[in-house]
Predict the 3D structure of the following.
Amino acid sequence: MEISGYVPHGPSSSFSSFRAYLRALAQTPTRLARRAGSVSTSYDEMSCVRARSGSDMQKTLRWFDLVGLGVGGMVGAGVFLTTGHASRLYAGPAIVISYAIAGLCALLSAFCYTEFAVDMPVAGGAFSYLRVTFGEFVAFLTGANLVMDYVMSNAAVSRGFTAYLGTAIGVPANKWRFTLSALPDGFNQIDVVAVVVVLTITLLICYSTRESSVLNMVLTAVHIIFIMFVIILGFCTGDWKNFTEPADPAHPAGFFPNGVSGVFNGASMVYLSYIGYDAVSTMAEEVKNPVKDIPIGVSGSVLLVTVLYCLMAASMSMLLPYDLIDPEAPFPAAFRGKWESNLIGAGASFGILTSLLVAMLGQARYMCVLGRSSVVPAWFARVHPKTSTPVNASAFLGILTAAIALFTDLNVLLNLVSIGTLFVFYMVANAVIFRRYVVVGTTNPRPTLSFLCSFSLTSIIFSFIWQFMPPGKLKAFTLCVTAAIAVSMLQIFHCMVPQVRKPEFWGVPLMPWLPSISIFLNIFLLGSLDRPSYVRFGVFSAVAVLVYVFYSVHASFDAEGSGSLSQKNGEIHKESAQQESNDPRLAV
């Protein structure tokens, strides 16, 4: 299709020479106006964009594979790494409630992911979902944060593996690491074991997705046995008084030692543990029957893992008073000096390997689709014809993860990952509402955008009041008024604005209530994070914007000129719409 006033360019013309790049930079405002808001379609994502990888990923996964991947991806990182920090520093014994809140938030987000994944079973996850709703720039900013989330969380998990492995064999983690005094605190503990683990798993996931899934199922099954052992051991040998009595009487007592705010602060930290289900959505392109398998795999894994998390958190709280919990390795520390400690350390190490395996599968698929969309070099999009895996993306991100795991402290990584995860889930919840109520080019988007912005602003105000207003009747009254305004706003939107899309196969129930609750919960949990987390998130997002302005927009502009990408900003190509209507797998 010829575009008026547009001269086609080669796929790399903006970068063919330094002079060509300077000419491209001079056209940046025009290209930003053209590409930043350009939306894709389900058909494009599943046909021409996917074709840029060359070979296809094989459809070999079923619902039980997805449940296994979800459980394996979430459980290893969540309970064994974040529980100690969240319980000791924030929630205390109420860490059980923190996990339930985070699980509810994850389940609502999982519904949003599932609607998109069933309609558009591609490997891009949130990046692809936002690209077909809010356009290329918003999708890139989200995709960059997603890749960062995975790299940082995998680095955190691999360093946690060192701590638990040391516990299993009776050698403290500091004996495995050495200190470089020239580096600042938080970045001076060198962990070679974490690097070896990450690079080994990188080789495995480059080999085969199907074999990786089978290995994950075996490892996860054995890991569940260890989990049940921990739960039973905690309930049989623990003491119920630890739910209310600290070891040091000078510390706050009760089930909520730091109040309700501590529970939500803990929930925001343990939310890292639910990042695994997002990795399941990136496997959609390799699922045999997306309509049946994806809803069971994504939502089922979140529900199962939430139950396991709550039981394990309760078990840990019974084993030790919250002020004696070891933030680095809470479960083995509860049995320090006993055989149970070594056994739990071995089980945790085992589970951390499964979470690394799944998460590294997911991060590679995100980067692969970013490459397909030309916002990062197309080299990342290559799928190897023999292994049917994105080998380039897998190898690059594996090496990057290993480099970060080598020197970065666990605490630095956890907060940065939590804020990025909450931001991405918030954006997907907005996207599913927008897609249900707006068809670009035929529907006025202003009512929906106005609602989304107003509801988000009201949720932010609620969070600010919760965090900063002193306790008392005035605070309670203000919170009730703000909540009533949000509910009224939601009801008015529900009654006044009709849905224009009805998902044929699977859709989020109770639209727009459940996605709106997800928006609120994600904002509320974001408000519970500390200031340094926002600073690091802001810096990374600023870097992502610079990458988009100085590289991505020009690469995607060139791809549009070569016919690899389309431009649909305020209009829908009739041919694409017709193709979607004729393909039952692409129906909306």
User: Anything to note?
Assistant: The chain has 23 helices and two strands. Residues 136-169 form the longest helix (34 residues). Residues 1-11, 570-588 have pLDDT under 50 and may be disordered.
